[in-house]
Amino acid sequence: MEVIYTGIHQTPDDVVNTVIQEDPDAVMLSMLSGAHNALCPLIMEKLKENGIDDVLVAVGGIIPDEDKVFLENHGLKGFYGPGTNLKTIVEFVKNNLKR
């Protein structure tokens, strides 16, 4: 697996531009700002606007359970809180990639 870290404070446009340039199989977002309900759907919308519908998108951070259904309805597939074991995330990616 190759990992490309883009740094903190990326805008939705920055994320989508990176996806366009790098053509990843998965995008793992880190949302520590509490803005996941605003930013994640916007990222998913911008991916779709650019014809990108085959990328697995998950998010890490403190995501309340009541927000997970909202985010799932926008296409996010996985949620990982602080302290999640890296092996758990790797297995999620391996098990959920479109082949």
Descriptive account of the structure:
Helix content is 45%, strand content 15%. With 99 residues, it is of the alpha/beta class. It has a single domain, classed as 3-Layer(aba) Sandwich (Rossmann fold), CATH 3.40.50.280. It has a three-stranded parallel β-sheet, with helices on both faces. The longest helix has 14 residues, at 36-49.
Write the topology of this structure.
Elements: H1 12-22, E1 26-31, H2 36-49, E2 56-61, H3 65-73, E3 78-80, H4 86-96
Parallel strand pairs: 1-2, 2-3
Helix pairs in contact: 1-2
Total count of domains? 1
List the total number of helices. 4
Classify the secondary structure makeup into a structural class. alpha/beta
**Beta-strand residue percentage:** 15-25%
At the fourth level of CATH, the homologous superfamily is: Cobalamin-binding domain
CATH topology name, in short, is Rossmann fold
Q: Write the element-wise H/E pattern from the N-terminal end onward.
A: HEHEHEH
The average pLDDT value, as a whole number, equals: 94
* Strand order in space, largest sheet: 1-2-3
Rg is 13 Å
Outline, from the CA principal axes? globular
Residues in helix, %: 40-55%
Question: End-to-end distance, in Å?
Answer: 15 Å
Uncertain segments are none
Strand tally: 3
Describe the structure in brief.
The chain is α/β, with parallel strands linked by helices and 99 residues long. It has one domain: Cobalamin-binding domain (Rossmann fold), CATH 3.40.50.280. It contains four helices and three strands.
Name a few traits of the molecule.
99 residues; alpha/beta; Rossmann fold; three-stranded parallel β-sheet; 4 helices; 45% helix; 15% strand; globular
